[in-house]
Amino acid sequence: MVKGQNVSLASLSEDVGSVMVGLGWSSPTGEGDADVSVLLLNDDGKVRSDADFYFYNNPVAADGSVQLLGKVPTEDGDEDRIGFDLTAVPADVERIVVAASRYRGARFGELDDVRVVLADAGGETLLRFAIDDADEVSAIIFGELYRRGDDWKFRAVGQGYASGLAGLATDFGVDVDDADTEDDAPTGGEPTSTPATEDTTVPGTAGADGRGVAPAASVPAGPGPVLEAVPAPRRPADEPPRQKAAARPRTAKKKVTLPARPAKTLAENDSWKQARLFPVSALKSDRDREMRATSVLLSVMAQVPEFGRRLTAAFGAPAGRMETFTEVSLPHGDTPRRPDGVIRVERAGKLWTALVETKTNGNALKAEQVQAYMDIAARRGYEAVVTLSNDVALEGSPLVDVKIDKRRKHKVALWHLSWAEVAHQAQMLIRHEGVRNAAHAWLLQELLHYLQHDNSGCHGFQNMGPAWVPVRNGIDDETLCQGDPRALEVVESWERLVRQVCLRLGGELGQKVLPVQRSRRGTDPQQRRRRLADQLCLDGRLQAELRIDGTPGVLALTADLRTGKLRTSIEIPAPEQGYPLSWAKRLVRQLAEAPADLHVETLVDSETGGPRGTLERLRPEPGDLLPKDSGVRITGFRLSLFKGMGSGRGNAESGFIRSVDDAVQRFYTSVVVHLDRTASRRAPAKETTG
Q1: pTM for this predicted structure
Q2: DSSP letters for 55-114
């Protein structure tokens, strides 16, 4: 579409009762981001009340008509997605404005490929609108949905606001609270605080040392790493008292999260086990695990509306009364089929139905089984088939290949969830964002405990696959050649592992943690992975970058299969003011509690490279970080930790997956949290990221 153009949704698809809008952009540094927002307007072009403004601190409409779903990976990088149930939009709402805003002086002109896409309930993309004249504005209206009789239409707007979110909101009648301070404005689009309630610790509240601490739930650790009381990044020591930031509306509702610390136990001794709602001791076989996991998940989805809606909105389901079922028998030729579960949502007399197929442990989804469910769903008029397993789906690399009969008028969407994604959403709700009552928080806590237990089989991605050992051996003896399909398998497994690491760390921190994809590697996911596989054959390294909200740079992760070492690192830009010796001393002071084996390297604009050394050696002499040639300009510092890499392909204590989890956790908790938060700088316009 072009600016100003409009189109009827009904002319594009027959399945537009629910639509998905995705806002996307790419950053030259991989760090730039923005907050999405939605406004519901009446026939006067104003909100009916402040509750009609949906943003990071008010993400879901009570009637389910609007839900901000957060970021999801796409072939172009990531997209912020918003689900709209157009059948649930109140009759007195005439227009729905979809916008995004940047913060702390950032502008959309610093981002590339600013765009909006709209998809129907089946996930099929209907339209795309690219905004190429964003320039120096800090807020943009991407587009709007509006009524024409009984139909909905979409208009490509592309209007910018130099006054940011506050100016945009005020124009549409939102009452902006001037008391809102910068503490409430996140560094990357997520709230850094949660409204306080009884027995609730507010994530991001400053402690005695001035740093925020995220609450640690009283949930026993499962097979993956669980961070305890992870501190948020610190403020600079010499930062002046915080001034009022640009006014941002406050419409968050009071919600319940888990206490920061569990109450003192009444057990007589440590060997007593607490009674659990979902026990795991009786699980003896994979079939038992699949049946129990399906029943546990679907029952909690039906009883906790926020959780059920969060999982199903991404599939195009409407907001409404949800019922879930297990072991349903459905006719299919001579032999009835029994999907593991069924989800049904009723809204305004209409039903949305999805069949559910579940796998636990390392069991893979079977293409023949999923194909049968797709056929059944198409014949019965169901909307979707949802698969759940420990595997992580990748863009352009389906877990199962199914054939879609295009002659059928009714379309069925195939969606996948990993158990790691389910656990992530439960963590976000009960530890950071909150739910409406304490009983729902307790149910989610019990679900999370079940998913993280060793015997549940719901541990997420846990195996690097059969190609892992041959590829490592081929790198060791230099017999691995470019084009070897096993290298591509390892690259895909590595990408799945990185996405899972992001989910786990993000769930613990309550912040966005996303993998960074550089656009110079291409936008086609399969081509990009093939190039990375060829690079693996040449240098024996797997590499990834993670963007964590509130940190001064991108966390880089490298697995060197030749040396068996994992390297985690972050590059910190040099301050814009002050003297180099002051920079070095200040950095060493910030790292007073960091590990002594931390490697610190000075980055300079010279090909020879700058000084480097361990923190243990640099602590008494920070001046050793300065180049001997005073004419060399310091551009920043690189901090790195090295760790031995597990050799096994699985998630055992000696396995590769566990070692990657441990390395990222150690680096974040012992190094990154001590660093000052810094505003991202404007990067050269010619570089792009995806």
Answers
A1: 0.69
A2: BTTB-B-TTSSEEEEEEEEETTEEEEEEEEEGGGS-TT--EEEEEEE--TT--GGGSEEE
